[in-house]
Design goal:
alpha+beta; 168 residues
């Protein structure tokens, strides 16, 4: 029988596995590397007017024609650009947290009903007409969430860290 014997040190492999295990013990560097590209993905949703699944915000509910006529700024959720500008991320433990600190960011993400708190009614002007209402319903227009593009960012960053760990 013909045979070959291969000998050598397993130390480089052990060291590479130790570096890979370190990524699992402390994923914060990977998460930090992914956070900014994930923020960029959220900002792109404002440019395209879509939710994380690619559904147009206008499909949730079209803009009220009176509001649309007076609206400043391009597209839905882009009146002043402040919501898009305030998207931030942070790494908290083993998580990436992305969002906006603006008080109205939640109502746009999830939708809801706005009611008068310190007055008998809400007062607003649209299309040159004055309105008094007990409540106004704001439709959900999700801009936060986990998309297929977000998954690609995470996988790409993790692969990059694994390659570096294996290479030493």
């Amino acid at each position: 029988m013909a045979s070959i014997t291969i000998t050598g040190s397993f130390q480089p492999m052990r060291e590479a596995l130790t570096r890979i295990a370190a990524i699992g013990r402390d994923p914060q560097p990977v998460l930090a590397a992914a956070a900014l590209p994930l923020e960029d993905n959220v900002r792109r949703r404002f440019d395209t007017g879509t939710d994380p699944k690619g559904v147009k915000w206008s499909e949730y509910a079209p803009l009220n024609p009176l509001y649309a006529g007076d609206k400043k700024g391009p597209g839905i959720l882009n009146e002043t650009g402040e919501l898009r500008r305030t998207i931030t991320s942070s790494v908290e433990g083993h998580s990436i947290v992305i969002g906006s600190p603006l008080v109205y960011s939640t109502i746009h993400q999830f939708g809801g009903v706005i009611r008068a708190k310190n007055a008998p009614a809400l007062f607003f002007v649209m299309g040159g007409k004055k309105f008094l209402r007990q409540s106004v319903t704001i439709p959900a227009r999700p801009y936060l969430g986990f998309s297929s593009e977000d998954r690609e960012v995470i996988v790409s960053k993790l692969s990059e860290f694994f390659r570096k760990a294996v290479a030493g």
